[in-house]
Amino acid sequence: MNGNGTVFIKGNHAIVEAALDAGCRFYAGYPITPQNEIPEYMSKRMPEEKGVFIQAESELISINMVFGAATTGARAMTTSSSPGMSLMQEGISYMAGAELPGVLVNVMRGGPGLGNISPSQSDYYQAVKPGHGDFHMITLAPSNLQEMYDYTFDAFDLADKYRNPVMILTDGLLGQMMESMDMKHDRKPLYPDAKKEWALTGAVGRKGQRIVSLLMDPGVLEAHNIKLGKKWKTMIENERKYELFNVNEETQYLIVAFGSMARISKGAMKLMKDLKIGLFRPITVWPYPYEELKKAAAGVKKVFVFEMNQGQMLDDVKIGLEGSKPVEFFGRAGGGVPMPEELCDFINKNK
Amino acid sequence: MNENIIIAGSGGQGVLTLGLFLAQAGLKEGKKVTWLPSYGAEKRGGFSFCSVVISDEEIFSPLVAYPDTLLLFDQRAAEAYKNSVTEKTFVIENTSLIKNDVVLTGRKTLIPATDIATSMDFVKAANIVMAGAYFGATGKFLQTTGEQVMGEMLKGRNSHAFEKNLKAFSEGMKFIKNPALVAGVAFIKNLRLLKKKK
Q1: Is the ipTM here above 0.90?
Q2: Architecture of the domain spanning A242-350
Q3: Sequence-ordered alpha helix ranges (H) in B7-142
Q4: Which of A37, A147, A180 to mutate to test the interface with B (most CBs of B within 10 A)?
Q5: Each residue's pLDDT tens digit, A228-262
Q6: Is A341 part of the contact surface with chain B (CB cutoff 8 Å)?
Q7: Chain centroid to CA A337: how far?
Q8: In a designed cystine with A149, which of A14, A144, B153, B196 is the match (CB 3.0 to 4.6 A)?
């Protein structure tokens, strides 16, 4: 595709277009609903862009193929849904340990276990605290299809900037729905030709180098962890993103919600115009915009947290508020998706 | 305009495609649009529905609890959505497959969409007959918009497919304006088909 323009597109397809526009030329994945449109559409589009599409034999292999592609300096991606993402946790940790960039998309479904295939936000914990070892991963949670596209593109830039895996955390609702959005095929990746000196490109004319996550010499691993820790501090300083919606001096109640739940919350706010309700939406659910949340909640009577789980982001809201405001939680679980009317009822009963 | 639509029926009836069709008609007329399919382990014959929101303003929730317009394809769909209907809801029912009228409120339009499509030897187009009924009864979008969208959706197919769909669309519209005409034709043709089978 060339140029820009408005298109009517599925969320899962928007992710594919963004990845290709960002210069992703390696994709490995394994089928799982509700993200199947990503590999299906990618299998058609990636060869058109002369990249590599592989349907791997499992999610374990997919993430390790992305590890392999990333060592060569390629922009690489894998996508999955909740149970598949569990299988990838080891690979994410290895990538972070080896300081490799890469983009992962989790189109969440109901869990635990094999769960079901309905939209859910039940992987919040796993997304913001992934894998084993002392590392962090930037996680972006889009709320509409424009953001699915924009933030997937951003994810590739962020991954290269920090040499770290980056996750897009979305769900079956945004993956499956269609909406119009603006393509930005002309947008240039921030680090497209940046010479990745660390990449394994064949040691012709230079000394050989290696990429490992096994650091056995005394003190070396601790030093490496401290380096990763410093990187994390920079991410916190530079990459926190959030949206304030109808938040001003008169706001009496603050809703905190992310992703598709933030949209549904806005729908509820539209039905309750007589109440002064604002919305705080973390866009980077990791690093979490704690300070900004506390500031947004400063003048309100009460904070409502809405999630499609039984209260996972709730912990971060409480950390951010530091006990300064009363918090009420409403969640639907196991693939349950609330109507805006349900949120209105909850607010009316608990305001 | 703020039009919240639910379309419900069974897998294979073209429920999701009809949703896409209406969504794209909205887009063509400059509206904001969302289309949200049901997503169970659907297959032919399984319960299937979609929500379409068409609005002048930014759309927040793509979910619809109480539709402005409800298109029901069969009995199971009518049973599933009878409680989502308010007095303001405009209901279009496919009477070919809804024999037991369980939707007791709302403003209703009845059309034997499957019979009309069958009489054209094109039962697949029952959803397009329903689309015609929607266009004819609500007047929310121009007929020419519908025809244009249909052309775009069928791009690359043979011209035969386009003509047949166009016919189904206009039969749906015609039925709303003058039911006797279309129903009569459908009845006679069905009779002929029955005789053939014997």
Answers
A1: yes
A2: 3-Layer(aba) Sandwich (3.40)
A3: 15-28, 75-81, 113-119, 126-138
A4: A180
A5: 999 999 999 999 999 999 999 999 999 999 999 99
A6: yes
A7: 20
A8: A14
